[in-house]
Amino acid sequence: MSEQAEQHQGQSAGRDEEAVSRFVERFAAELTEAGMQRMASRVFAALLASDSGTLTSAELAEQLQISPAAVSGAVRYLVQVNMVRREREPGTRRDRYRLYNELWYETLGNREKVLTRWEEVLREGAKTLGPDTPAGARVAETVEFFEFMQGELDVLLERWREHRAQRLAEES
Amino acid sequence: MSEQAEQHQGQSAGRDEEAVSRFVERFAAELTEAGMQRMASRVFAALLASDSGTLTSAELAEQLQISPAAVSGAVRYLVQVNMVRREREPGTRRDRYRLYNELWYETLGNREKVLTRWEEVLREGAKTLGPDTPAGARVAETVEFFEFMQGELDVLLERWREHRAQRLAEES
DNA sequence: CGCTGCTTTCACAAATTTGTGAAGTTAAGA
DNA sequence: TCTTAACTTCACAAATTTGTGAAAGCAGCG
Domain segments of chain A: what residues? Predict the structure, then answer.
């Protein structure tokens, strides 16, 4: 791929696209192993490795060697789970897909919704098993653990932001 | 199923096995959605809902309506990821499978190994992208986030144990 | 208003994953 | 050592998931 084409995609000139691609695929594989759909993982990893944090459908299809249909499916999923958002490129009929949050990892905290659902199921289960049974007690304790975690995770994120702000201040 | 049979499985007499089964399946479905193999999820959920925290292969096969082969596969996985351990029942040729830790949710912290692998991949990626590029900076920051989290999660677990101990003390 | 090009949807084929039956292996007990 | 119960492995069939090409849908622009 020519440097001009790279510029076109908003990447640094002359970066080693082959090495970048290896990284994209390696990280995507990790995401996939963690339970994310394969194409969604690859699309997300590609966005993460792009300078602008944004790519068009065509660029994704070309870079990942997949059909527009596959891009569409992956993006639908990523938008739904709030990892990517869709932007219309003004003056064209082309969409751009962007990392939902530059601080994308904060999204991992959005697991909240998952945790909440788990809590509901477990709370109901504890009731079914009965608080006076070993199994019921075990499940009830699990619920408390999740409640505790839910609260603490927010605190933790706040601490991270401080930590990060401090680091940025030191740098300058 | 007769109460005698239930006793045989170490469950409370007279618990509503049908409702328990619904709970097992519901929670298993959550685990599956979160990326765990289906049979592994079901086996784990069944153990979680058992009073003794331990079941034999035959009991699992019967309760979940699956073949011994399926139990074997599920257990192999669960043992590997340290959620279940295998025990030989002395004086018989029957294995028992037990929740690895009564405080099973602590295992969620064992995600450490996963986080560490992610960190490696991302660190390498940051190098490839170059620290002076937006993409490289983004990935490098992700690495720092994981490093931070790794450390804080231990602290958090410790706080939970305190929290829990205190609650137990209040109860008595 | 209709053409044009980008995106999505749909039906299907390919690939992968899952669970089973049956054979194989291991170890307890006679 | 032999028998046999229990678990594991293996090869395969079934089910599910995945990605594609082709057609349909939409939105910009003339």
Answer: 3-101, 106-171
**B30 SS3 class:** helix
CATH of domain A3-101: 1.10.10.10
Contact at CB, A20 and B128, closer than 8 angstroms: yes
Token digits of residue A67: 């059909």
Asked if the Cβ–Cβ distance from A23 to B167 is below 8 Å, we say: no
pLDDT of residue A89: 80
Of B15, B133, B144, the CB nearest to A130: B15
Residue burial B136-160, b: 16+ Cβ < 10 Å; e: rest: bbbbbbbbbbbebbeebbeebbeeb
From the list A125, A139, A152, the residue facing B156 with the nearest CB is A152
B80 Cβ contacts chain D strand, under 7 Å: no
For residue A6, CA distances in Å to A13, A16, B134 come to 6, 11, 15
Nearest CA in chain B to A46: B135
Average pLDDT across chain B, whole number: 88
Q: Indicate the DSSP class of residue A12.
A: P
CB atoms within 10 A of CB A47: 24
For A148-172, the pLDDT digits (tens) are 988 888 898 899 999 899 988 887 7
